[in-house]
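Field guide to reading this record: the first block holds the primary sequence, the second block holds the structure written as discrete tokens, and the final block holds curator observations. Each block starts with its own label. This record concerns DUF1415 domain-containing protein, catalogued under organism Pseudidiomarina gelatinasegens.

BLOCK 1 — SEQUENCE
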Amino acid sequence: MNQNSEKLIAQTAAWVEQVIVGFNLCPFARQEVERQSIDYQVEPSDASAEQLQSLLNLCKKLDDNQDIATALLLLPSGVDDFHDYLELVDYAERLLELEGYTGVYQLATFHPNYQFAGCDADDAANYTNRSPYPMLHLLREDGLSAALASYAKPERIPERNIEFATKKGAAFFEEILANIKALNGNA
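BLOCK 2 — STRUCTURE
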């Protein structure tokens, strides 16, 4: 792994710990961080074909290693524009379906410019899905189902997160993301 990939992974891991776990945006993430069962991969290519192939390779890696609970595929090039990213997500969803992964893995989406439909670009609610880099997050469906079954009112999680983000405000999250992206990778 090259030095730049190590830096991107370190920054993303810091984001997971500080934002996702730290603010309990995903109540199931803490356990996976503590178990060190999150796999981080970087696809440096800006070509969607290579990005999709990396996603497929990551599915196969999860198939072969049950100790990996979830995986984050970082895409630092090629999908900086949120609409380009959404197009890649559409292709990724179709690829997972074609490869027989429907019901096996679920795709979650995070992007530095994430914008919920119907929200303004500067709405703090978007920060529940804003990350240091564009990424595709693979979750095991069986693990997700088990986690949701053991959590009271899981349907309330997104609403609670949006309320929290709105209360804190966009500037709060912008500062956190800027600080994370300033990390040199040795944190």
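BLOCK 3 — OBSERVATIONS
The chain has a mean pLDDT of 92.
The chain has one domain: 3-143+150-181.
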